[in-house]
């Protein structure tokens, strides 16, 4: 175990090491494949084994996300906002743990890790505040030329497959997951391949934050192995390829066309420490226009 | 009719203190004004003594708010302001039971309303506006809209905590600091909110709360260093404030009186409409500026509807505000009770037909049995003036155009109700209403995401929603 992770523990005590597992449908299973892979810190020292998720795990995760979609998208925006804010509250309580894990995963100094974790907590708060404002900012009443009342409302697109950024193990992860679920989508997330531990710890936060099981599902493993199954899956509605290896990105986008998935447009590089714009919220929204006649 | 055993909420939960002090610059301090005694309108017993602000205290509070604005709050990043306001929302939620009991004690409203409407909606208002604090650039007022400065706010006694939330939450979210005066008869929940603001560790001076009577309110709104004035209350006082502020350049929003029409068309689901009519006029003893106080019924269903309405109203239980079974609590003050009695007497004198529920009333306290006037004509005072009590005036109409004409025949324009099964008629009637809020097949719905406010003599400006932010931004 790395020094950073055992920070603050009594020196003469042997720490209990955690088994890092997947997060699917609110539960923490091992990979059905029985596989795991070693995760090292930035200097190459062994941290832990992570589950190496398989095609079957991905499909289970999609099924769990689909099952959760009705309830989550049907919850009031106020309720979703409070749940997301609760995530920030619980994350704040685990601040020290995340500072240690992000430090170990990303090889950054404590001060930098602190600022990354603080930004990740504040990012949840930012998106928590969006749930009940998306419709007023992105919706519209349409002044159609006729005796009709017409309005357009944003609605979540459904199950979103998210390939989390490979570098930013927590802030980047939060920055791609929170906007997906804020609007009522559910997510299947493939964590950073080499820095997956903060993602699994985040799933422990999600599991204890009133977030219904299945709204966020987190897989660890080889991104290039799992991603194609998600990109081609018939019950996935959209794809965020942010963490896709360059070599397979175009293939994933081609697979996504099979069921006309919404694919987040790739950005050359994304600085997750900056306040985000609405791009990630908008990307996974449908717009529904309703017409109704007006007259006595 | 069913007999109900008493089911009172314990008044101990309110954590009443013998005296309360004003909140200035982060501290509870004695005011220089004559202390007031706030009473429980349900029993006429004194609840607590509350210190009030003298003119010098108003100046002190405005100075504290200015300092807090200049040094801390006005320049703080929105994302940090947001976290303070989220804390307030959570603390209100955590202390919701205490606040609900306190509100019912001080105001007289039934505990089921303070518990299920006032307090949760107040918390929701803080929660919603907390989220705006770091998103103002997305609200449609330009990329980086600025706050105004110090907001002077005066609120009424009908929803003491909720009105404080409606005023304070958007002001803080937009980066302003606040000097707020709660109503003379209901100062307690605002002062507990001040305690919550202290617990949330807001910088001193960001929120200041000054109890007192109308003179304190007048001093707050006319203070030269106040940049924005928000007032909720009577149209008469609203007009005085608008005149007072003329030429000062201060930004002003007013939420004033109303005389809302609640229109029932002949194809309406009558049982559902009856529930909505009852909610529209008897919610909060009718102390609601948007109350559906003028019922307009299509002639062909008027008899049937009135019969159903009287049966339903007969079942309403009037009494102890703390009893969980109480539907209608106490009238907030003797003064208000007198006004209701005077206006209902005018209704009888002018020839309207009065029906009053024969429900028993408590011996002590201010109570008024629910009353329905039929055969009301538009010229009568009870059809024109805001009664602000559990009194409904029923008028009839024959055609939809007549309904619209009668509904709009008022200088007010706060809200309106429409009851019909026909969607196109709802939208047609809603378009024709000269009112800021129109409820269709429902009534008295409030949500922080939905702007609220009136046309013409019901005031200007909106509270809630994206629209409501405008009142607290320099735009």
From TrEMBL, chain A:
<keyword id="KW-0560">Oxidoreductase</keyword>
<feature type="domain" description="Aldehyde dehydrogenase">
    <location>
        <begin position="38"/>
        <end position="263"/>
    </location>
</feature>
<protein>
    <submittedName>
        <fullName>Acyl-CoA reductase-like NAD-dependent aldehyde dehydrogenase</fullName>
    </submittedName>
</protein>
<dbReference type="InterPro" id="IPR016162">
    <property type="entry name" value="Ald_DH_N"/>
</dbReference>
<dbReference type="Pfam" id="PF00171">
    <property type="entry name" value="Aldedh"/>
</dbReference>
<dbReference type="InterPro" id="IPR015590">
    <property type="entry name" value="Aldehyde_DH_dom"/>
</dbReference>
<dbReference type="GO" id="GO:0016491">
    <property type="term" value="F:oxidoreductase activity"/>
</dbReference>
<dbReference type="InterPro" id="IPR016161">
    <property type="entry name" value="Ald_DH/histidinol_DH"/>
</dbReference>
From TrEMBL, chain B:
<protein>
    <submittedName>
        <fullName>Aldehyde dehydrogenase (NAD+)</fullName>
        <ecNumber>1.2.1.3</ecNumber>
    </submittedName>
</protein>
<dbReference type="InterPro" id="IPR016163">
    <property type="entry name" value="Ald_DH_C"/>
</dbReference>
<dbReference type="InterPro" id="IPR016162">
    <property type="entry name" value="Ald_DH_N"/>
</dbReference>
<comment type="similarity">
    <text>Belongs to the aldehyde dehydrogenase family.</text>
</comment>
<dbReference type="InterPro" id="IPR015590">
    <property type="entry name" value="Aldehyde_DH_dom"/>
</dbReference>
<dbReference type="InterPro" id="IPR016161">
    <property type="entry name" value="Ald_DH/histidinol_DH"/>
</dbReference>
<feature type="domain" description="Aldehyde dehydrogenase">
    <location>
        <begin position="29"/>
        <end position="474"/>
    </location>
</feature>
<feature type="active site">
    <location>
        <position position="255"/>
    </location>
</feature>
<dbReference type="GO" id="GO:0004029">
    <property type="term" value="F:aldehyde dehydrogenase (NAD+) activity"/>
</dbReference>
<dbReference type="InterPro" id="IPR029510">
    <property type="entry name" value="Ald_DH_CS_GLU"/>
</dbReference>
<keyword id="KW-0560">Oxidoreductase</keyword>
<dbReference type="Pfam" id="PF00171">
    <property type="entry name" value="Aldedh"/>
</dbReference>
């Amino acid at each position: 175990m790395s020094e950073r992770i055992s920070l603050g523990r009594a020196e003469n005590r042997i720490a209990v090491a955690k088994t890092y597992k997947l997060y699917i449908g609110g539960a923490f299973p091992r990979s059905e494949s029985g596989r795991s892979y070693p995760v090292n810190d930035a200097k190459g020292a062994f941290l832990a084994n992570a589950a190496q998720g398989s095609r079957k795990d991905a499909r289970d995760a999609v099924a769990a996300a689909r099952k959760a979609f009705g309830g989550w998208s049907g919850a009031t925006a106020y309720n979703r906002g409070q749940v997301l804010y609760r995530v920030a509250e619980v994350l704040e309580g685990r601040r020290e743990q995340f500072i240690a894990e992000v430090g170990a995963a990303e090889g950054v100094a404590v001060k930098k890790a602190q600022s990354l974790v603080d930004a990740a907590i504040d990012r949840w708060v930012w998106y928590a505040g969006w749930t009940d404002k998306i419709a007023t900012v992105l919706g519209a009443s349409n002044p159609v030329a006729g005796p009709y009342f017409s309005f357009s409302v944003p609605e979540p697109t459904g199950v979103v497959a998210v390939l989390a950024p490979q570098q930013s193990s927590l802030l980047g992860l939060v920055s791609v997951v929170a906007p997906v679920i804020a609007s009522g989508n559910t997510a299947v997330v493939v964590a950073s391949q080499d820095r997956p531990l903060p993602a699994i710890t985040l799933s422990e936060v999600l599991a204890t934050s009133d977030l219904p099981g299945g709204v966020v599902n987190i897989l660890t493993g080889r991104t290039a192995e799992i991603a194609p199954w998600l990109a081609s899956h018939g019950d996935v509605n959209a794809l965020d390829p942010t963490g896709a290896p360059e070599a397979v990105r175009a293939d994933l986008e081609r697979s996504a066309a099979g069921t006309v998935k919404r694919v987040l447009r790739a950005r050359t590089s994304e600085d997750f420490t900056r306040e985000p714009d609405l791009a990630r919220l908008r990307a996974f929204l449908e717009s529904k226009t309703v017409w109704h006649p007006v007259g006595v | 009719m069913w007999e109900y055993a008493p089911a009172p909420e314990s008044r101990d939960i309110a954590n009443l203190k013998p005296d309360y002090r004003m909140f200035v610059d982060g501290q509870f301090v004695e005011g220089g004004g004559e202390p007031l005694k706030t009473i429980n309108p349900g029993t006429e017993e004194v609840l607590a003594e509350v210190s009030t602000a003298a003119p010098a205290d108003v100046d002190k509070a405005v100075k504290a708010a200015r300092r807090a604005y200049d040094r801390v709050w006005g320049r703080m990043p929105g994302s940090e302001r947001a976290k303070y306001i989220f804390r307030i929302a959570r603390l209100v939620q955590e202390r919701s039971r205490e606040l609900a009991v306190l509100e019912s004690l001080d105001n007289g409203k039934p505990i089921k309303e303070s518990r299920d409407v006032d307090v949760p909606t107040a918390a929701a208002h803080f929660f919603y506006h907390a989220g705006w604090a770091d998103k103002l650039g997305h609200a449609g007022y330009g990329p980086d809209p600025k706050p105004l400065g110090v907001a002077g706010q005066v609120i009424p006694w009908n929803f003491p905590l909720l009105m404080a939330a409606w005023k304070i939450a958007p002001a803080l979210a937009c980066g302003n600091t606040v000097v707020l005066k709660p109503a003379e008869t209901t100062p307690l929940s605002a002062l507990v909110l001040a305690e919550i603001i202290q617990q949330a560790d807001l910088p001193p001076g960001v929120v200041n709360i000054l109890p007192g009577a109308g003179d304190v309110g007048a001093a707050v709104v006319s203070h030269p260093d106040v940049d924005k004035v928000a007032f909720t209350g009577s149209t008469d006082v609203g007009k005085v404030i608008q005149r007072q502020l003329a030429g000062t350049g201060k930004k002003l929003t007013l939420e004033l009186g109303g005389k809302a029409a609640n229109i029932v068309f002949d194809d309406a689901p009558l049982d559902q409409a009856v529930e909505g009519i009852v909610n529209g006029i008897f919610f909060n003893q009718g102390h609601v500026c948007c109350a559906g106080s003028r019922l307009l019924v299509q002639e062909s269903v008027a008899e049937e509807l009135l019969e159903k309405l009287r049966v339903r109203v007969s079942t309403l239980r009037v009494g102890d505000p703390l009893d969980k079974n109480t539907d209608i609590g106490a009238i907030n003050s003797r003064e208000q009770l007198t006004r209701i009695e005077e206006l209902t007497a005018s209704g009888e004198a002018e020839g309207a037909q009065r029906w009053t529920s024969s429900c028993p009333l408590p011996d002590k306290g201010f109570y008024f049995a629910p009353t329905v006037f039929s055969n009301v004509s538009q010229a009568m005072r009870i059809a024109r003036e805001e009664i602000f009590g559990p009194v409904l005036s029923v008028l009839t109409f024959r055609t939809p155009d007549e309904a619209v004409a009668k509904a709009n025949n008022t200088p007010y324009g706060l809200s309106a109700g429409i009851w019909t099964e026909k969607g196109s008629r709802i939208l047609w009637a809603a378009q024709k209403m000269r009112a800021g809020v129109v409820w269709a097949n429902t009534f008295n719905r409030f949500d922080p995401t939905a702007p609220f406010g009136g046309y013409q003599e019901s005031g200007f400006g909106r509270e809630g929603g994206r629209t409501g932010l405008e009142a607290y931004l320099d735009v």
